[in-house]
Amino acid sequence: MERSEGRSRCAYDSRLGYRAIGVGYNLDDKSDERMREISTITQTDYGKLYCGEECLNDVQVNALLAFDARRYLLRAKERIENFNSFCCNVQSIFADVAFTHAKSRLGEQFSPSIDRALSSQYKEAAEELRRSEWCREHEKVCAADTRAMEEGCPTASMSSSRKAGSWLPANSLTCVPATTTVMERSEGRSRCAYDSRLGFRAIGVGYNLDDKSDERMREIATILADYEKLYRGEACLNDLQINTLLALDARRYLLRAGESVKTLDNFCCNVQAVFADVAFTHAKTRLGAQFDQTIQKASSFQWREAAEELRQSKWCRKNEAACKVDAQQLEEGCASVGDSAVLAFLDSLRGLMAA
Questions:
Q1: Which helix (H) or strand (E) holds 278?
Q2: Which of 133, 278, 323, 333 sits CB 3.0–4.6 Å from 316 for a disulfide?
Q3: What is the CATH T-level fold of the domain 176-340, as seen in this structure?
Q4: Angle, nearest 10°, between helix axes 111-118 and 88-101?
Q5: Which residue, among 244, 196, 198, has the nearest Cα to 220 in the 3D structure?
Q6: Which H helix or E strand runs over 20?
């Protein structure tokens, strides 16, 4: 979506004719749903945002983008019956088409492309998309989306089929949601600072307050929190602030896992999240040799064997509860992939708005 639309912290007139902010977030759509999203995420006056008197920071832009990503994934899913059978690469293309199409439903012009994609004929699906009226109206977007469509899902039953090193740009939510779920399952959640079982001062979902790197200090400042007061327990966080730090940590540990698991990009989010959780609970800068056999088996898509190797690790003996559920999830592998993890994470944000 950002590749198609670009990004602006302040309101602008989109090429589709509506007032927008962030990554094409529609400010002219004053539905109750969008008003709640803006109120919860930005805590800023809608009128001032609309007129350009106030702008957003990157965390707020990313949060609204997450809601929109969910919105357009669902819109594409309404049109494509077997949408969850696609890998994330293909799902994201149809969601982007729904986003740039600016209609409540994908029309018949997309039927040939959808049919080809459902048959895993990705080059033909891309060619059909190039013939659509939408493509003629959105030439640059179409050129990028059809190139991505041609790549399809190179390895069957994968939900992540990106080129090495490119699957997780700074604002990507592809595997972050699945990872946040697994991390919270392992660590739990606390609004106030606590002493983690790994020996450092933490807050939220194991967010390390003893790590005073510039990066973490910027993250805490971004959520408008006072580090010293948080550390001493004089101030606590709300759920939105916790979720923001958790998403940043999920990205951090996905990247850390990727440094040791060179084939991480080939795994679905279900498996990527397991390795990120191992990196999170392992509390080392790099996954050690004890995980080599697990990584080797997973790289060959031998999920049961990979899970068994994980159970034999020293890490597993030290983290029995986390290991039990992570190994079980690793056994499942990539048998059932789709947008469920993304939707589950974003549903949790919707729950905050309903509260």
A1: helix 269-282
A2: 323
A3: Lysozyme (1.10.530)
A4: 170
A5: 244
A6: strand 19-22
Contact 149, 87 (CB under 8 A): no
CA 206 to chain centre: 19
pLDDT the model gives residue 287: 87
The ranges assigned to domains in the chain are 1-57, 176-340
Taking the chain, what is the end-to-end CA distance rounded to the nearest angstrom? Answer: 29
Secondary structure (3-state) at 79 = helix
Tell me the C-alpha distance between 38 and 274, whole Å: 32
> Dihedrals φ, ψ of 204, to 5°?
70, -120
The amino acid present at 84, given as its one-letter code, is N
**Using CA atoms in the order 186, 190, 196, 198, what is the torsion angle rounded to 10 degrees?**
30
For residue 333, what is the DSSP state? T
DSSP element (H, E) containing 22: strand 19-22
Tokens at 80, concatenated: 């494509």
Find the helix or strand (DSSP H, E) in which 134 lies: helix 133-137
DSSP label at residue 131? T
Task: Please name the residues in contact with 115: beta carbons below 8 A apart, sequence gap of 6 or more.
Answer: none
Q: How is 199-239 classified by DSSP, letter by letter?
A: SSEEEETTEESS---HHHHHHHHHTT--HHHHHHTSS---H
The pTM assigned to this predicted structure is 0.55
Question: Residue 263: what residue type?
Answer: T
Tokens of 308: 């068994």
Identity (one letter) of the amino acid at 127? E
Helix (H, G, I), strand (E, B) or coil at 165: coil
Confidence category of residue 174, pLDDT binned at 50, 70, 90: low
What's the confidence (pLDDT) of residue 166? 33
Using an 8 Å Cβ cutoff, are 269 and 178 in contact?
yes
